[in-house]
Every structure is written in structure tokens, then in C-alpha cells.
Amino acid sequence: MHGGDPLNRAIGVFDSGVGGLTVLREIIKALPSEDCFYLGDTARIPYGTKSKETVTGFAIKNTEFLVSLGIKFLVVACNTAAAAGLDRIAERFDVPTIGVVLPGAERAARVTKNGRLGVIGTRATILSGAYEREIVRIDPVIKVFQQPCPLFVPLAEEGWTEDEIAHLTAERYLSRFADHSIDTLVLGCTHYPLLKGVIQQAVGYDVTLVDSAAPIAWDVKKRLDEMGLKRDGSGGVKRFFVTDDPDSFKRVGEPFLGCRIDDVKHVDIVM
Fold first, then answer.
1. CA-to-CA distance for 189 and 19, rounded, in angstroms?
2. What class, spelled out in words, does domain 102-211 have in CATH?
3. CATH fit for domain 6-99+214-266, picks 3.40.50.720, 3.40.50.1860, 2.30.110.10, 3.40.190.10
4. β-pairing, 208-211 with 184-187?
5. N or C terminus of the chain: which is more exposed, having fewer CB within 10 Å?
């Protein structure tokens, strides 16, 4: 799997489960010729309720696994893991790495017109303050208002994205943003794009939703191009690895990826 020529190595992507498939979907669109290896750490999901130290440990082990396959670029497609452990990964591994937080923060800071942004994510992502830190670093004048939305993850995985339960949950979580006059909302979890419809309705159609998936895919493309590691053409191979049940991953994950998932292998990642 390693491959002698770095050009022919794969892009490695990991997430706690299936949410990162929304990121992989955009990477495949932007870079159709690239091989991609996706790791879903489904045995240890959810990350969003765990401590920073625990999530960082998981992120390091996931990276070790993908690096052992001989990847040329790493995408941390989990907001919780990127917020908790991206710095540690960058220090420890000699592979170009990007997380989902910075591209989303940069896009949001560009999009806002009134300088009032909302951020939603798991409890761990919100508590980390990662998005607020990056947004304010880009533009200190911007005001950031945050809200954890933990129930959005199981709703997305159950496929309950447009029913009454999803609408009521979105109203309950997001109604507070009306008091802050936000014009932009960052979807700070890779599950949330599946709930865009109910989220948009809850915050109003004058609020722009920002999803990190497309910006991160274009950042990966740009950086591979700059390093001379971007392959041209089409038909890249996609391989999937999970730490729990492959059949469950395929069933839940296909709506996130937007196509069939065929090649899924169970792997043990020992902590």
C-alpha cells in the first residue's frame, strides 16, 4: 500500500464515525484522480462527549494507522479531534496535515457582512473554543456566539433529517441566535450538513450556513498542487476502514457520502 512514488500515495481521512464522509465527498469531487483511505473510529464514537486528552489519544492512534498505509496527506475530518489534537498530530507526524476548523473559520470570516457569527458543534468542539479562537484571530472585530447541538449527530445517523423531531430539536437549539442578529452560522460538525434544511429554517433564510467540507477540499487540492503531489485524471481508489461493524458503517454512511460504499474493512486500533 505504501507505494514508492509519493505522488501515487493516498490521501488519508479520519473521523470518529461517518460524519467525515461529507468531507471525503467534497475531496473526491475536487480531486477525482486521488486514492483515498478513510478511517471511521466507530468503536469509540462519540468523540464529542469525551475529554480533550482522550480525544487527542484517539486522534494520534488513528493517524498512526493511516500513516502506516503510506499516505501523502492527512485530513482530520472530525471537528472534535481537530479542535483537541491537531497541534499534537502536526508535532508528532511528518505528513502534511489539515483539520476542518481553520477552513471553516476562514470561510465564515469572509462571508459575514455584519461581523456577528454563530457556531454550532458537539459539546467538546464548543468547549474547546477552537472556532472562536480562529475566527477572532482572523478578524478581532467579529463577535462569535456558540451553541452545542449534541442531538444533531444521532438524528443525522438515524436519517431523521427532515421530520418533526429534527425541526423541534433545531428550533430548541437555535432559537437563541435570534437574539444575537447573526448573519452567518458555522456548521462545526461534519454530521450537520445532512440537517441543513431544518437548520436553515430554524435560523432563517437570511443567515448564510458555512460548511467546512468544500473549503477543506479546495485547501487540500491547493496544497497538493503546491507540493507537486496532485495527480491528474480520474478513477482514484477509495478504501474504507472501521473499528466496529462494517455493515452498519455502510448502511449509515452511504447517505453522507452520496454513493455506494463497497470496500469496508474492520481493523483493530489498540490504545
1. 8
2. alpha beta
3. 3.40.50.1860
4. parallel
5. C
- By annotation, the residues acting in catalysis are 78, 189
**CA distance linking residue 91 with residue 269, whole number of Å:** 21
Residue 204 grid cell: 432563517
Q: Looking at this protein, which amino acid is placed at residue 200? A: Q
- pLDDT for res 60: 96
Three-state DSSP at 73 gives strand
- Which segments within 91-136 are labelled E, that is strand? 97-99, 116-121
Same fold, 6-99+214-266 and 102-211: yes
Confidence of residue 8 (pLDDT cuts 50, 70, 90): confident
**Global confidence as pTM:** 0.90
Instruction: For residue 231, give the amino acid letter.
Output: R
E strand map for 77-148: 97-99, 116-121, 143-148
